[in-house]
UniProtKB/TrEMBL annotation:
Coiled coil regions, renumbered to chain: none
Pfam short name (any one): adh_short_C2
Keywords of this entry: Oxidoreductase
Record keyword Oxidoreductase present: yes
Family annotation (PROSITE patterns): ADH_SHORT (PS00061)
The name this protein goes by in its record: NAD(P)-dependent dehydrogenase (Short-subunit alcohol dehydrogenase family)
The keyword Oxidoreductase belongs to this UniProt entry's keyword annotation: yes
InterPro entries tied to this protein: NAD(P)-bd_dom_sf, Sc_DH/Rdtase_CS, SDR_fam
Family named by the database record: Belongs to the short-chain dehydrogenases/reductases (SDR) family.
CDD domains (alphabetical): SDR_c
Length: 253
């Protein structure tokens, strides 16, 4: 029996990195998946899931658009007849633009995807989860939302916003049986951080990557997927309203 056996789950940002690793792990653990991404990478994710014997449908959609969010929630309900959880994981970094060069448009796009996206995911899944009296929501924040560091300002602000959104929503969900949590990844080797890793490899400094945390290495996408699996499963039945760093100990120092 899988740890997510028979659960209908949506993952956004499933076309790459953490979302793809979670798609593969969750379906291996029995989840019926709606994999969402705005790129064609989501088709490749679903092909990999099916090849491994799992159940998944791909939806190409923008996780920051209310119409698209309504669409992929409806798809989960029509495909599997119910919804048990969502991982609002899609995000963009926005790069490291010096503050004087940042524009309101630059901020708006990062906030739209990274913060309004999770808000919309919560808004449109909540009614279904509440109606059935159980369910779990997970949002991807970042260590950048917990402490200052090398991230861009709008990215860090968007991720701090996600943590606050999760904490506030836990109270809005009081008495419903629905849980909500966040994960805060440290430096993880994915599509988003590829330029960092490629640049370091080109300079021969890749051995220094991740040296700021006590484990002295970067994380891999499956190391986030395993945390997501726990938090969306019934094993985490008393875990609610929290933001968990998965960062090799970076924020412990
Ligand atoms: P990634 O780039 O490999 O994957 C992100 C996926 O999200 C991509 O497939 C992308 O197409 C998709 N996406 C972006 N905007 C979207 C939108 N509007 N609608 C639908 N899909 C969209 O990066 P990742 O590292 O796997 O990122 C996953 C999450 O983890 C993000 O929220 C990111 O901010 C967060 N995170 C990553 C790191 C890291 O070091 N990689 C650290 C902290 C937080």
């Amino acid at each position: 029996m899988g740890r997510l056996e028979g659960k209908s789950i949506i993952i956004t940002g499933a076309g790459s990195g953490i979302g793809r690793a979670a798609s593969l792990l969750f379906t291996k653990e029995g989840a019926q998946l709606i994999a969402v991404d705005r790129t064609e990478g989501v088709q490749e994710t679903v092909e990999q899931v099916r090849k491994a014997g799992g159940t998944a449908e791909a939806v190409m959609a923008d996780a920051g658009s209310e119409d698209d969010v309504k669409g992929f929630v409806a798809k989960a309900l029509s495909a599997y007849g119910k919804l048990d959880g969502i991982w609002a994981n899609a995000g963009i970094s926005g790069g490291l633009v010096p503050l004087p060069e940042q524009t309101p448009e630059h901020w708006q796009e990062i906030l739209r995807v990274n913060l309004i996206g999770p808000f919309l995911a919560i808004k449109h899944t909540m009614p279904h989860l509440i109606k059935q009296g159980h369910g779990a929501i997970l949002c991807t924040a970042s260590v950048a939302g917990l402490k200052s560091g090398a991230s861009g300002h709008p990215y860090a602000a968007s991720k701090a916003g996600v943590i606050s959104l999760v904490q506030t929503t836990a109270y809005s969900l009081s008495g419903t049986g629905v849980r909500i949590n966040a994960v805060c990844p440290g430096l993880i080797e994915t599509g988003m951080t590829k330029p960092v890793f490629d640049g370091a490899r080109a300079r021969g400094t890749d051995h220094k990557i991740g040296q700021l945390n006590p484990l002295k290495r970067a994380g891999q996408p499956h190391e986030l997927a395993t945390m997501g699996l726990f938090l969306l499963s019934d094993e985490a039945s008393y875990v609610n309203g929290q933001a968990f760093p998965v960062d090799g100990g970076l924020t412990a120092s």
